[in-house]
Amino acid sequence: MSARENRRLPRRRALAVPSAAAALALVLSGCNFFDLNPEEEEGAQGKADGQAPALAKQVEAGDLPPLEERLPENPVTVEPVEEVGSYGGTWNSAVLGIGDWPWLGRTVGYENLTRWNTEWTETIPNIAEDYEYSDDAKTITYDLREGMKWSDGDDFNADDIVFAVNDVFNNTDLTPMANQNPPSAEKIDDYTVEITLHDPDSLWAAHDLLQYQIVNKPVHYLSEFHIDHNEDADQLAEEEGFDSWTEMFERKAGVMDSALTWQNPDLPTLYPWKVVKPLADSGRMVLERNPYYWKVDSEGNQLPYLDSVEFEIMQDEEVMLTRALNGDFDFHTRHFNTAENRPVLAENRESGGYEFIDLQVSEMNTNMISFNQTIEDEGLREVFRDKRFRIAMSHGINRKDIIDVVYQGQGEPWQGAPRRDTPFFNEKLAKQYTQFDLDKAGNLLDDAGYDERNGDGVRVSEDGTPLSFTLSVPGDFRPDIIDSMEMVVDTWKQLDVDVEMNVEERSSWQDSRENNEHEVNVWSGDAGLLDAMYDPRWYAPLHAGESNYGIPWAQWYVSDGNDPRAQEPPQDIKDHLKMYDELQAEPDPKKREELMVDFLAESQEQFYAMGIGLTQPGYGIVSSDFRNVPEQLPEASVYNTPAPANPEQFFIEQ
C-alpha cells in the first residue's frame, strides 16, 4: 500500500475535457469557489489572507514583506481547472538521473517571457505583460511586469534581460558555439526591453530555446562571477577551486549545461518553487514555495498552492514503473508510460490510487530511420543521397507486420509527416512509399543501377560500393524500437542488402551522431502537431543536433556556414532551407501556415528520412486526490507538457 493511500478520496471533476479539435483546443472545466479559514494550521485546507499559512506567519513575525509588496502591480491571474485550491502538501515525482533535467523544466521551471496557452492555440504574455514585433519581424519590444521580484526578494527588471543576452549569451568565452540568429538586448527603461535579432523571426517570441535561459540569469547574483562586472572574478574563481571565471560562472548559472541551474540552490528564481536540495546523482531533489511568486488564482490568492515538490532521483525505468504502480507519484507523464506498460498500469489503478489522463502526443512516428547523406565515406554518401535507393528501402519495410507484432496492432503505416489533426497534414507525405513490396523494391534497386552483386551476394553500386552498412539503434531508449529494427533488417537482407544492426549504449549512440560517424540510425519521430512549424527537424535539415540524415547540413544552416563541422548542402536543399527562412520572416499567421504547407510539399519531394508507423495517443498518471489537472493535454517538447496546464494551481484534496 502506498504511504499516501490512507488519505485518497475519489477524484471529482467539474467538467470532462473533450477531444482536441483540428485547432488542438482543449476546453478547460469550470471552477467552484470557497472561502477558507485563515486561522487553519499550515497544510490544512485553508487560505491566510490570500497567501499560504506559512508565509502569513512569516509576515506576522516580520520575516517577510506583506503580500502586496511581494506581488507585481499586475500579477498573472490563473483560472483553476476545477476549483480554487487549498494550500499545503507535496507533489511527489521522479527523474531518471541528472540527464533527465528537462522534466524539471516541464514541471517546476517553465516561466518564459511569453508562453503557450493551455489549449496550444496561441502565444500569450507571461513574464512580459505585453510584447510587440516590429514590421520586419527583427525586433521584439517586451513590457515587463512592474514590481516582479526574484525568489530572494530582489527586483526583476530589464537589467536582468540585458545581462543575460548581451553579457552571457553574446560572450564567446561563455558560449563558444554561435547562437542561431543571435539576439541583442537594449534597455528602454526599467520595465521595457528590446530584443533585436540578426535575421527576421516571427516565431521567436512563441518558441526559442534561448527564452528560458534569458530569464534565469539574475544580474544581482551572477555579476559577482562575471569578469566584465567584477575584475577580480578570476581570483574569486581560484579561491573557490575553479580554473577560470568562465568555469565558475558555468557552474553557478548553467549556461551550456542547463542541468547546473538545478544544482545551485543559491541561484534566485522566478519559478513557483525554489531549489532547497539540489539535483544530484541519487537521493531526492526538493523544492519549496517561492514567497515572491507573481501569479494568483481567480480569487486573488497567491500561487502555488503546493508547499513543495520532491523528485526521487532514479537510474532505472523499471524501478520507476514499480513506484508508479505503488501510487508513489502524484502526477507523471514520462518514461514508464509506454504502450507496453499501459495494461499493467491500467489494471493497478484502483489499488495504486491513480487515474489516467490522455496525452495527445506530438510524436508522429514510432521510428524514424535516417540514412546519413553527409557521411564521410564517398561511396555510401552517393548511395544514401540517391532518392531512388531510399524509396526502394522504404518499400522493403513490412510496416503492417511491425505494427501488429511490436505495437499490438495499434497504428498505421506512416512516414515522417504531421498528424491528421493539424493544419499541416499532407497525406502524400504521410503515406508515400509505405506499401510493402519486395519485388517492387528489388526492381527499383535494379533500375537505379544496383543490379550487380559482389562475391558475397551483396548488391553493389555502379562504382562498386557494396550496399553494406550498419544500422545504429540506441539500446537504453525504447525496446520497441529495437524490436522494430530487427524486423526491418530481416526484410532488407532479402533484397541482398547487407545490414548489421548495432545496439549501442545511448551516450555512445549520441556521440556517433554528433560526430557524424553513423551510417544509418533510428530515433523516434517528433514534431507532429503544431510543433511541426517550430521544430521541423524531420522535414528539412534544420536541427544541428537531431536532423540525423544531414546534421552537417543543419550545422551549415544554423551557423551561416561558419561551423567548422558544417557541410554546404546541394542547391535544392539550400532552396528548401530558404523556404523556412521566408516562413520565419512572415509576420502574418495565416500566410505562415500557407508557407508551411508549401515547405512540407518540398519535404515530400526530398524524402529525407523514412518512418514506420503513426504513434498512438499516450497517457499519464495522476493521483486520485491530486486536483486541477486537465483530463487531456498535448504531449510535446515544444508545448513543454505539462507546463501550460499551470502546475502552480495543482493541489491535493485533503
What integer value in Å does the Rg equal? 26 Å
What's the N-to-C terminus distance?
Answer: 19 Å
* Spatial shape: globular
Major beta sheet, specifics? 5 strands, mixed
What does this protein look like?
The chain has 654 residues and is α+β, with helices and mostly antiparallel strands. 27% of the residues lie in helices and 18% in strands. It contains 21 helices and 25 strands. It has a five-stranded mixed sheet with strand order 19-18-20-15-21, sandwiched between helices. Strands 2-12-10-9 form a four-stranded mixed sheet. Strand 7 and strand 8 form a beta hairpin. The longest helix has 18 residues. The chain is globular. The relative contact order is 0.15. The N terminus is likely disordered.
Question: Layout of helices and strands, plus pairs?
Answer:
Blueprint: H1 53-60, H2 67-70, E1 76-78, E2 90-96, H3 102-107, E3 114-116, E4 123-125, E5 128-133, E6 139-144, H4 158-169, E7 183-189, E8 192-197, H5 219-222, H6 233-239, H7 245-253, E9 273-277, E10 283-289, E11 295-297, E12 308-314, H8 317-325, E13 331-332, H9 342-347, H10 349-352, E14 354-361, E15 365-371, H11 378-385, H12 387-395, H13 399-406, H14 427-431, H15 438-447, E16 452-453, E17 459-460, E18 468-474, H16 479-493, E19 498-504, H17 506-514, E20 520-525, H18 531-534, H19 551-558, H20 571-585, H21 589-606, E21 610-611, E22 618-623, E23 626-627, E24 632-635, E25 651-652
Parallel strand pairs: 1-11, 2-12, 14-24, 18-19, 18-20
Antiparallel strand pairs: 3-4, 5-6, 6-8, 7-8, 9-10, 10-12, 13-22, 14-22, 15-20, 15-21, 16-17, 23-25
